[in-house]
Amino acid sequence: MTLRVAIGGLGAIGGVVASRLDQGIEGLSLAAVSARDIVRAESRIAGFTRAVPVVPLHRLWEQADVVVECAPAAVLRELAEPALVNGRIVLSLSCGALLENLDLVELARRNGGRIIVPTGALLALDAVIAAAEGGIETVKMITRKPPEGLLGAPYLVANGIDIDGLTVAKRVFNGTAREAARGFPANVNVAAALALAGIGPDRTTIEIWADPSVTRNIHRIEVEAAAARLSMQVENVPSDENPRTGRLTALSVIAALKKLVSPLAIGT
Fold first, then answer.
1. 53: alpha, beta or left, given left = phi > 0 and alpha = psi -120 to 50?
2. Catalytic residue set
């Protein structure tokens, strides 16, 4: 059986995923896309081998078995709620927004839907999930990004934190994953994913640094658990289209989709 996939958002992540699906992945087919700029979306998929419709976010579920959410966090519910009510699978990348809309999990339960959060730009989420079964004491993540990847974040604007022209690294945030997700909605969905995998958004602590000396988005994770001590670091190459997003994120979505239809699944 082939799973029909619809994609909400054709930016740095959704555009890559749509293109790979159009090129052909066994067991998966691109069924529909959605974007704020319909004309631009139509232009982006004009060269695809098979024509697919561009539809509103709230109607993506009508075309698909799986809806991939690559849109701005503010429209998570618009895409996810009707899909879950109708028993669809939603792959959500707006993990920070998901923390504020966890009633969607109950909605999925009641209607036979499912929410899947891909690993995204992190690594070893499987290890954190496993460690949580035996008990985790602390989870800390330190994120370092080039300043241009943090520009415009609501937390920086609200607190008057200027990162233009930095010559040395500057810590711009220290708090919980929940607070980080609210203050940096386009930057640290990884923090929300880590929190959901481990001990929750109010016990997971996050530091965010604007660092002009780095060219990659760097996430370092430290976990103290009963079963293991985990120390992990990933250095993601920023997307050419959006420096806030690492190239690995789109590849993670593709891997998660393939896992849904593969006869061999690797990982927890």
1. beta
2. 219
